[in-house]
Write a structure and sequence with these properties.
The complex is a heterodimer of chains A (118) and B (107).
Chain A (H helix, E strand, L loop, with lengths): L2 E5 L2 E3 L5 E8 L8 E6 L5 E7 L5 E3 L7 E6 L4 E6 L8 E7 L9 E2 L3 E5 L2
Parallel strand pairs in A: 2-11
Antiparallel strand pairs in A: 1-3, 3-8, 4-5, 4-9, 5-6, 7-8, 9-10, 9-11
Chain B lengths: L3 E4 L2 E4 L5 E7 L7 E6 L6 E5 L3 E2 L7 E6 L2 E6 L9 E6 L11 E5 L1
Parallel strand pairs in B: 2-10
Antiparallel strand pairs in B: 1-3, 3-8, 4-5, 4-9, 5-6, 7-8, 9-10
Classes of the chains: A mainly beta (118), B mainly beta (107).
Protein backbone atom coordinates (compact mmCIF):
# COMPACT_ATOMS: atom_id res chain seq x y z
CA UNK A 1 0.00 0.00 0.00
CA UNK A 2 1.34 3.42 -0.97
CA UNK A 3 1.69 5.84 1.92
CA UNK A 4 3.12 9.36 2.09
CA UNK A 5 3.80 10.99 5.46
CA UNK A 6 4.91 14.61 5.65
CA UNK A 7 6.71 16.25 8.55
CA UNK A 8 8.75 19.34 9.33
CA UNK A 9 6.13 22.04 9.32
CA UNK A 10 5.85 24.69 12.00
CA UNK A 11 6.01 28.38 12.83
CA UNK A 12 8.89 30.26 11.25
CA UNK A 13 9.74 33.95 11.03
CA UNK A 14 9.81 35.77 7.69
CA UNK A 15 13.18 35.30 6.02
CA UNK A 16 13.77 32.01 7.78
CA UNK A 17 14.30 28.50 6.43
CA UNK A 18 12.52 25.21 6.92
CA UNK A 19 12.90 21.73 5.47
CA UNK A 20 9.88 19.54 4.88
CA UNK A 21 10.13 15.77 4.60
CA UNK A 22 7.86 13.21 2.97
CA UNK A 23 8.51 9.61 3.94
CA UNK A 24 7.23 7.18 1.35
CA UNK A 25 6.30 3.53 1.70
CA UNK A 26 4.95 1.02 -0.77
CA UNK A 27 7.19 2.27 -3.57
CA UNK A 28 10.65 3.76 -4.11
CA UNK A 29 10.81 7.55 -4.49
CA UNK A 30 13.62 7.30 -7.02
CA UNK A 31 11.40 5.43 -9.46
CA UNK A 32 8.49 7.87 -9.47
CA UNK A 33 7.68 11.49 -10.08
CA UNK A 34 7.19 13.27 -6.75
CA UNK A 35 5.68 16.65 -6.12
CA UNK A 36 4.76 19.24 -3.52
CA UNK A 37 1.39 21.00 -3.63
CA UNK A 38 0.34 23.67 -1.15
CA UNK A 39 -2.88 25.22 0.06
CA UNK A 40 -3.00 28.55 1.84
CA UNK A 41 -5.63 28.81 4.58
CA UNK A 42 -9.09 28.98 3.02
CA UNK A 43 -7.63 29.03 -0.48
CA UNK A 44 -7.22 26.66 -3.42
CA UNK A 45 -4.49 24.24 -4.41
CA UNK A 46 -1.18 25.46 -5.84
CA UNK A 47 1.40 23.18 -7.42
CA UNK A 48 4.84 24.05 -6.00
CA UNK A 49 7.56 21.70 -7.23
CA UNK A 50 8.26 18.39 -8.97
CA UNK A 51 11.18 15.99 -9.20
CA UNK A 52 11.09 13.43 -11.96
CA UNK A 53 12.57 9.94 -11.74
CA UNK A 54 15.51 11.14 -13.85
CA UNK A 55 16.26 13.80 -11.23
CA UNK A 56 15.10 16.81 -13.23
CA UNK A 57 13.34 19.43 -11.14
CA UNK A 58 10.60 21.98 -11.76
CA UNK A 59 9.30 24.91 -9.71
CA UNK A 60 6.40 27.30 -9.69
CA UNK A 61 7.49 30.88 -10.39
CA UNK A 62 6.33 31.89 -6.90
CA UNK A 63 9.03 29.73 -5.26
CA UNK A 64 11.76 29.55 -7.90
CA UNK A 65 15.17 30.44 -6.46
CA UNK A 66 13.95 30.03 -2.86
CA UNK A 67 12.76 26.40 -2.66
CA UNK A 68 14.70 23.25 -3.54
CA UNK A 69 13.19 19.81 -4.03
CA UNK A 70 15.35 16.75 -3.47
CA UNK A 71 15.17 13.11 -2.44
CA UNK A 72 17.22 10.67 -0.41
CA UNK A 73 16.92 7.25 -2.00
CA UNK A 74 18.48 5.50 1.00
CA UNK A 75 15.76 6.91 3.26
CA UNK A 76 13.04 6.72 0.59
CA UNK A 77 12.19 10.31 1.45
CA UNK A 78 11.33 13.45 -0.49
CA UNK A 79 12.36 16.89 0.79
CA UNK A 80 11.48 20.51 0.22
CA UNK A 81 14.07 23.01 1.43
CA UNK A 82 12.38 26.36 1.83
CA UNK A 83 14.53 29.48 2.22
CA UNK A 84 13.73 33.19 2.40
CA UNK A 85 10.24 32.37 3.59
CA UNK A 86 7.48 34.96 3.21
CA UNK A 87 4.08 35.38 4.82
CA UNK A 88 2.48 34.27 1.55
CA UNK A 89 4.22 30.89 1.86
CA UNK A 90 1.94 30.09 4.80
CA UNK A 91 0.04 26.97 3.78
CA UNK A 92 -0.52 23.28 4.26
CA UNK A 93 2.10 21.52 2.16
CA UNK A 94 1.13 18.19 0.64
CA UNK A 95 3.45 15.60 -0.81
CA UNK A 96 1.81 14.07 -3.87
CA UNK A 97 2.70 11.53 -6.50
CA UNK A 98 1.25 10.29 -9.76
CA UNK A 99 1.14 6.53 -10.25
CA UNK A 100 2.62 6.91 -13.73
CA UNK A 101 4.29 9.52 -15.88
CA UNK A 102 1.19 11.63 -16.36
CA UNK A 103 1.12 14.45 -13.85
CA UNK A 104 -2.18 13.98 -12.10
CA UNK A 105 -1.89 12.92 -8.48
CA UNK A 106 -3.23 9.58 -7.28
CA UNK A 107 -1.41 9.61 -3.98
CA UNK A 108 -1.36 12.35 -1.36
CA UNK A 109 0.04 12.71 2.12
CA UNK A 110 -1.94 14.21 4.98
CA UNK A 111 -0.15 17.55 4.74
CA UNK A 112 2.03 19.60 7.07
CA UNK A 113 1.28 23.20 8.06
CA UNK A 114 3.88 25.91 7.57
CA UNK A 115 3.14 29.26 9.18
CA UNK A 116 5.39 32.20 8.34
CA UNK A 117 4.83 34.95 10.87
CA UNK A 118 6.73 37.20 13.24
CA UNK B 1 1.16 29.59 -18.30
CA UNK B 2 -2.20 27.90 -18.75
CA UNK B 3 -4.91 29.34 -16.53
CA UNK B 4 -7.76 27.14 -15.30
CA UNK B 5 -11.09 28.81 -14.49
CA UNK B 6 -13.89 26.95 -12.74
CA UNK B 7 -17.54 27.94 -12.54
CA UNK B 8 -19.44 28.39 -10.43
CA UNK B 9 -17.32 29.15 -7.37
CA UNK B 10 -20.09 27.96 -5.09
CA UNK B 11 -23.03 25.73 -5.88
CA UNK B 12 -26.01 25.09 -3.60
CA UNK B 13 -27.80 21.82 -4.26
CA UNK B 14 -29.97 19.18 -2.63
CA UNK B 15 -29.47 15.46 -2.21
CA UNK B 16 -30.51 13.75 -5.43
CA UNK B 17 -29.78 16.76 -7.65
CA UNK B 18 -27.76 16.51 -10.83
CA UNK B 19 -24.77 18.82 -10.53
CA UNK B 20 -22.42 20.12 -13.21
CA UNK B 21 -19.16 22.00 -12.69
CA UNK B 22 -17.31 23.62 -15.57
CA UNK B 23 -13.56 24.08 -15.99
CA UNK B 24 -12.11 26.19 -18.80
CA UNK B 25 -8.48 26.28 -19.86
CA UNK B 26 -6.89 29.43 -21.28
CA UNK B 27 -5.51 27.35 -24.17
CA UNK B 28 -6.03 23.83 -25.46
CA UNK B 29 -4.96 21.06 -23.11
CA UNK B 30 -6.34 18.21 -25.22
CA UNK B 31 -7.70 15.69 -22.68
CA UNK B 32 -5.01 16.23 -20.04
CA UNK B 33 -7.33 17.17 -17.19
CA UNK B 34 -8.00 15.73 -13.77
CA UNK B 35 -10.70 16.37 -11.19
CA UNK B 36 -10.29 16.13 -7.41
CA UNK B 37 -12.63 16.21 -4.43
CA UNK B 38 -11.48 17.77 -1.17
CA UNK B 39 -13.20 17.76 2.20
CA UNK B 40 -12.24 20.12 5.05
CA UNK B 41 -8.97 19.18 6.72
CA UNK B 42 -8.29 16.37 4.26
CA UNK B 43 -6.03 15.87 1.28
CA UNK B 44 -7.56 16.01 -2.19
CA UNK B 45 -8.85 12.77 -3.68
CA UNK B 46 -8.50 11.96 -7.37
CA UNK B 47 -11.85 11.40 -9.08
CA UNK B 48 -11.27 11.66 -12.83
CA UNK B 49 -8.18 11.68 -15.05
CA UNK B 50 -7.68 12.10 -18.78
CA UNK B 51 -10.85 14.22 -18.76
CA UNK B 52 -13.28 11.29 -18.56
CA UNK B 53 -11.55 8.25 -16.99
CA UNK B 54 -12.99 7.31 -13.62
CA UNK B 55 -10.43 6.55 -10.92
CA UNK B 56 -10.77 3.10 -9.40
CA UNK B 57 -13.17 3.06 -6.45
CA UNK B 58 -14.91 6.32 -7.36
CA UNK B 59 -18.71 5.98 -7.64
CA UNK B 60 -20.11 5.86 -11.14
CA UNK B 61 -22.32 8.82 -10.25
CA UNK B 62 -19.25 10.92 -11.10
CA UNK B 63 -18.41 11.53 -14.74
CA UNK B 64 -16.18 13.85 -16.69
CA UNK B 65 -16.27 15.11 -20.24
CA UNK B 66 -14.69 17.61 -22.58
CA UNK B 67 -11.55 18.26 -24.54
CA UNK B 68 -9.54 21.22 -25.73
CA UNK B 69 -10.49 24.12 -23.47
CA UNK B 70 -13.84 23.21 -21.94
CA UNK B 71 -14.52 20.44 -19.48
CA UNK B 72 -17.29 19.38 -17.12
CA UNK B 73 -17.59 17.28 -14.00
CA UNK B 74 -21.07 15.90 -13.46
CA UNK B 75 -22.53 14.23 -10.38
CA UNK B 76 -25.64 12.45 -11.58
CA UNK B 77 -27.37 12.23 -8.19
CA UNK B 78 -25.82 14.17 -5.33
CA UNK B 79 -25.28 12.17 -2.16
CA UNK B 80 -24.59 13.51 1.37
CA UNK B 81 -20.95 12.41 1.08
CA UNK B 82 -20.51 14.51 -2.08
CA UNK B 83 -20.73 17.88 -0.35
CA UNK B 84 -17.15 19.08 -0.75
CA UNK B 85 -14.91 21.32 -2.83
CA UNK B 86 -13.94 20.20 -6.32
CA UNK B 87 -10.82 21.20 -8.26
CA UNK B 88 -9.74 20.69 -11.84
CA UNK B 89 -6.05 20.44 -12.75
CA UNK B 90 -4.38 20.38 -16.14
CA UNK B 91 -1.30 18.30 -16.81
CA UNK B 92 -0.71 19.27 -20.42
CA UNK B 93 2.55 21.09 -19.75
CA UNK B 94 4.67 22.79 -17.09
CA UNK B 95 3.53 24.45 -14.88
CA UNK B 96 0.71 22.18 -13.81
CA UNK B 97 -2.07 24.40 -12.49
CA UNK B 98 -5.35 23.95 -10.62
CA UNK B 99 -8.65 25.72 -10.95
CA UNK B 100 -9.72 27.90 -8.03
CA UNK B 101 -12.24 25.34 -6.80
CA UNK B 102 -16.01 24.88 -6.67
CA UNK B 103 -17.65 24.40 -3.31
CA UNK B 104 -20.77 22.23 -3.41
CA UNK B 105 -22.90 23.05 -0.40
CA UNK B 106 -26.23 21.91 0.95
CA UNK B 107 -29.19 23.94 -0.24
Amino acid sequence: EVQLVESGGGLIQPGGSLRLSCAASGFTVSSKYMSWVRQAPGKGLEWVSLIKSDGSTYYADSVKGRFTISRDNSKNTLYLQMNSLRAEDTAVYYCASPSGIYLYFDYWGQGTLVTVSS
Amino acid sequence: DIQMTQSPSTLSASVGDRVTITCRASQSISIWLAWYQQKPGKAPKLLIYKASSLESGVPSSFSGSGSGTEFTLTISSLQPDDFATYYCQHYNSYPWTFGQGTKVEIK
